[in-house]
Design goal:
This protein is mainly α and 362 residues long. It is 72% helix and 2% strand. The protein is built from 18 helices and 2 strands. Strands 1-2 form a two-stranded antiparallel sheet. Strand 1 and strand 2 form a beta hairpin. The longest helix has 40 residues, at 290-329.
Length: 362
């Protein structure tokens, strides 16, 4: 009973977390009993798979493109993709497809779902996006737009679209006008009042101002060269600036950093427990009697050559035997246009010349 109670509490906690995150797949279900919620989250069904797809896409939005390429009939491909994602998050094994399908024990499935939801909650940007449904957001946007386009704010909108505010305050403008008039009287030039800003800038730029300007230009050039070097080193900036489809996502970068941290922690643990003792051992001492190994190598090489020669001799003998057998069994044309085998022809010749071959009788 304790196990069932723990499973039911965990089912309620996972279901409430999905509702608080604004999961559209649990919106409108209005489930109250823990058994019904556990059946929804831990039984194999298409609805459960869609919930798992939504959770994975909330953690890594770029995975939506992979889900969109998988057809509804390709259920095995979808299960493999979800299993691979869970393995990359170090929450399941690489071949743990029963957990994704909903065939694993309910407690293990609920723990797996809760761990995924904890990752979503750790990202502060996800709850803010998910708490608002699409309908409420559109209504608020329409209300805000209607408020801004009302008659009360028309003057403010015109001022924002066509600003006429002078960046100089009143006392600074008065000071610049007097400075311009005094400078024009001294030099005998009658400049326009609208040029008081340029003349004030030239009056302030003396020898010291030119030096500051030169230093600023040099600093700007060095900074620009440094940025160009950094841009060449960063390949992802070059791909993004060239108009390619690869975009560095903040969520993807966060997941990559998290994966790398977990891998480094796992490697550190394995190294300290298993590999450290082997790595600290002294290197083995090599034998100085290299002549013995060289002699054994020469003997083995000579033995291999002799074996190869025997193999060739055996193959040659087999080939000759087949050739002789073929000559004895095949029928060929001999004298008088008769087709006979070689033994028959020899027997006929032997009978024909038996008189000459037999010893002479006295």
């Amino acid at each position: 009973m304790a196990g069932n109670s723990k499973q039911q509490q965990l089912s309620l906690r996972v279901y409430n977390t999905l509702q608080s995150l604004g999961c559209p797949l649990v919106d409108g279900l209005y489930l109250r009993e823990a058994e019904s919620i556990q059946e929804l989250l831990c039984s194999p069904s298409l609805h459960r798979t869609d919930i798992l797809k939504w959770i994975c896409a909330s953690i890594c939005p770029s995975i939506r493109e992979k889900f969109s390429t998988i057809r509804t009939t390709q259920n095995e491909d979808l299960i493999q993709e979800l299993t691979r994602f869970g393995h990359e998050m170090m929450l399941c094994k690489a071949n743990d497809q029963d957990l994704i399908k909903g065939l694993a024990p309910p407690l293990r499935q609920l723990v797996f779902l809760e761990q995924l939801l904890i990752i979503i909650q750790s990202d502060s940007s996800v709850p803010s996006r998910q708490n608002l449904s699409s309908g409420d957001e559109s209504v608020k946007n329409e209300d805000l737009l209607g408020e801004l386009m009302s008659q009360d704010h028309s003057a403010d909108l015109d001022l924002l679209l066509n600003p006429t505010c002078n960046p100089w305050s009143a006392h600074i403008r008065e000071h610049l006008i007097h400075t311009q008039s005094a400078h024009s009287k001294t030099n005998g030039n009658h400049s326009k009042p609208n040029d008081f800003i340029n003349s004030d800038q030239h009056s302030r730029l003396g020898s010291h101002g030119e030096e500051d300007l030169t230093e600023a230009i040099a600093l700007l050039q060095s900074t620009q060269s440094t940025l160009e070097e950094l841009r060449k080193e960063c390949e992802f900036l070059q791909s993004h600036s060239s108009g390619s489809t690869a975009v560095l996502s903040a969520c993807a970068l966060k997941v990559a950093i998290s994966d790398m941290s977990q891998l480094m922690t796992a490697f550190n643990h394995v190294y300290n427990t298993d590999f450290k003792g082997y790595c600290q051992r002294a290197s083995p001492s090599l034998c100085s009697s290299t002549s013995v190994f060289q002699f054994v190598h020469q003997l083995l090489r000579t033995c291999n050559m002799e074996l190869e020669a025997l193999k060739q001799l055996s193959e040659t003998s087999t080939s000759l035997t087949q050739t002789v057998r073929q000559l004895q069994t095949e029928r060929r044309y001999w004298s008088k246009g008769e087709k006979r085998t070689l033994p028959n022809q020899l027997e006929e010749l032997k009978n024909k010349y038996a008189v000459f071959l037999s010893p002479h009788q006295s």
